[in-house]
Amino acid sequence: MTTKVSRQVSGHVVLGTLGVLCVFPIYWLYATSLRAPGDIGSLSPLPWPLSLDNYADAWRTIDLTGMLVNSAVVAVCTAAGQLLVGLFAAYAFTVWRFPGQRLLYLLFVGSWLVPFQVTMLPNYVLLSRLGLLNTIAGVIVPTLCSALGVLLLRQHLAGFPRELLEAAAMDGRSSWATLWTVVVPALRPVLAALGILLVINAWNEYFWPALVLRDNAMVQLGIRSFMGTEGNDWGPLMATAGLACLPVFALYLVLQRHIVNAFVRSGLK
Amino acid sequence: MTILAELPTPAPTRAAAPVARPSFAARIRRAAPPYLYLAPALVLLVVWTYRPLAQAVRLSFHTWNLLPTSPITEVGLANYERLLSTPDLGASVWRTVLMVLGILPFSLVIPVVVGLVAARVRGRIYQAMIFAPMLVAPVAAAAVWQWLLDPGAGAVNRVLGVRANWLHDTDLALLTIIVVTGWHIVGFAVLVVSAGLSGINPDYADAAAMDGASRGRITRWITLPLLSPTMAFLVLMTVLLSAQWTFPLIDTLTQGGPSDATTNIYYLLWDYGFHSYDAGLGAAAGVIFFVGFGLIAVGVVALSDRVSHHDD
């Protein structure tokens, strides 16, 4: 019995320590952002007196409202597009057998191995020819095919009860009607979880928007504007970084289980 | 479990084929639907991933300084020869290997230990805490770590009472990047392990306990072997993605420095792309890394199929 208790205690100690180490930097990010500008360097664990000056400062220096709106538009449009494109592709892969299927599937898997650093310059050149540089569309369009989305949805559809599809076909429903009236309703939890994951990924994306948008019009790029070669402006920097993470944490608090499941299934990208 | 693994898909049963041979147009119409559904994804994939890759392959046999007005000259294999003869490539590959090895404790060892410990205490709150860093945007993570590790005002140095320059000391920078990356991804690996553990049938351990096996022996001889597919998946992820995971942190925290101490292969590519004005060389490096990672992926998948125990 005592060994059981000591096991329990050691378990809580190990997990608790790791948990605190993981959360501490996040706590410190928000703690610093809420200190008065004169106390930035303070080591007191609680930011007191609380102050929103850093946030006000960040808002004055950069167009945070515009950035947050742009980031939200990009994240939602990207995720919605990726879901739709991925759903169609996964549907094609699971419902039909067709010549070239394996090869085409390998094309999707293989795209994971193509480094972003290889594609960025040719894609940049193509965007500039299309006149999409410095536009929100230019950020979204090149990312609309998410191999992750296709592979995940295919995996789920592979387990989809075939009888339902056959029953729909018997009823004389077209594949298009079957997709929307049979498959999508049944797949709703999966689509929701994947959608959240894709929104988070798109929200956190930095490099591609940094290339396409010259005027720092998204919040992840805004963070960088407080980092200088001469040293950083820590207060507003932490405030902007904190704001950039806030929507994701809010989603996490509300939808924790879904998000965790989505991440576990996804591999991570 | 792994997405890279092929799932068997049952073939759809079709209605019996009509006896009369259908017309050409009718056959086209019957064959078309899967391709139509695939078309949007395929067009995007070709335009935004494989066209650039093909362009990189072509460019790797040419020399060009990225200026639209200057000529693109064919040079055969010269870029590859140059690449393999400069020390940059070998050094960055070596540093990438070090990063992979350094990240493995975070992506494999700690998660397995945590998973085994968590199995005997109720710890959803801990999992939530360990997972949180995963959600922090890489740039925001870099910002707060830069603040924590600041040589003068940073909390880490002041709490430890040292004056280490974590990010700009050639001996420390690589280690710092590894630890920060480890912090960022450990929660993901913990979740993967706990998913793997919950998929193990408890009957085996119960039977062994009935036969008088100790906890340690059960862990060693039952749990860990049954967890091996999960562990193989994590190793594959670490090998293939470490360079990607570290990249945004390197770019924000050290820019590959000090004196290249944190330049891994992706940072080298990034650097070739933007700073060297040598498009051919950068393209050659990209092609080499693509092929190299492809071979490693195939190798690790084959190897893990051989060493993993499956609960059949």
Key terms:
A: 269 residues, mainly alpha, MetI-like fold, B: 312 residues, two-stranded antiparallel ribbon, 11 helices, 69% helix, 1% strand, transmembrane helix (chain A), MetI-like (chain A)
Describe the protein's architecture and organization:
The complex is a heterodimer of chains A (269) and B (312). Chain A contains 14 helices and no strands. The two termini of chain A are 44 Å apart. The radius of gyration of chain A is 23 Å and the shape is globular. The model of chain A has no long low-confidence stretch (mean pLDDT 88). Chain A has a single domain, classed as MetI-like (MetI-like fold, Orthogonal Bundle). Chain A is mainly alpha-helical and 269 residues long. Chain B has 312 residues and is mostly helical. Chain B has one domain (87-307): MetI-like fold. Helix content of chain B is 69%, strand content 1%. Chain B contains eleven helices and two strands. Chain B has helices spanning 24-59, 78-85, 87-118, 124-131, 138-148, 155-160, 173-198, 202-210, 215-253, 265-275, 279-307, and strands spanning 62-63, 73-74. Chain B has a two-stranded antiparallel sheet. The model of chain B is unreliable at 1-17 (pLDDT under 50). At the A-B interface, helix 1, helix 3, helix 4, helix 5 and helix 7 of A face helix 1, helix 3, helix 4, helix 5 and helix 6 of B.
